[in-house]
Amino acid sequence: MPAVTKLSYLGFNVSDFSQWHTILFEILGLEARQDSPQGQIQLRMDSHHHRFTFFESDTNSTAFVGWEVDSIDQFHALYQHLQQLGIGVELASPQDKEARQVLELMKFRGPDNVAMEVCFAPFHDNQPYEPSCTRFGQYVTDDQGLGHILYCHSDMEAALTFYRDALGMRISDYIHWDEARATFLHCNPRHHSLAICNPCFGTGAGELNHFMLQADNIDDVGQAYDRVAAMDVPLVLTLGKHTNDQMTSFYMVTPSGFAIEYGYGGAEIHDDEAWEIALYNAPKVWGHNLVE
Ligand SMILES: [Fe+2]
Q1: How many angstroms separate the alpha carbon of residue 72 from the centre of ligand 1?
Q2: Structure confidence at residue 13 (pLDDT)
Q3: Which domains does the chain have, with CATH numbers?
């Protein structure tokens, strides 16, 4: 069965990009492309041409979630597979492929009408990523993709079926706590590239709760945490460690309402046969205290 293998890129509509400067540049050290098209800001975090696109808009919303496949054969097979499932999938125009800076691109709607895309062969820049603030190391990307996202969905059963049967993702584990029922899915060694949850904690159906970026060393996360305190960046959750993926991380509030998790040390799944799927009764081992 064809399957996506990475979370590749994300797009956001934002009403005031200036509000994002501190979090994106001074905390996370992303790089804004000086050659971004008019009305957009494209951001880098690794060798990819860009991983994020922020569109100047009247609203604040997620514009698209971009997944990636590993081969042209997988791209065509996935396109046929989605068609056979009755999912309204379209091959993108040359203009859209140019905008995303990918060789091949298809578009469709996921659960709760979330705009999704799958690309093959994103362009890599011959110039290295230049962090906009001091960083000791790199982001963990490459074969693990951009990071992970957590979406809330109105019908968890239907959403899980879509991500497993249409996109070929595999279940990592589950966490049930308070009113939350979360299922974690992987498509590469990263413990999860996607988590799905019932609408809860203020995140509605079809809305992004947070995305996560992972550093390859704890010091980048620790120094970013110091900068967050010094710059009064609002937190959702304090520094803490997750039960299931063992990630040490903290969560920041963004101007669009969703959160950004920044972490280190996430677990990896290299052998699905050997991996034991567990149900946890809490998301944290320590920390991750809710900031009111
Ligand atoms: Fe997360």
Answers
A1: 30
A2: 98
A3: 6-122 (3.10.180.10), 142-287 (3.10.180.10)
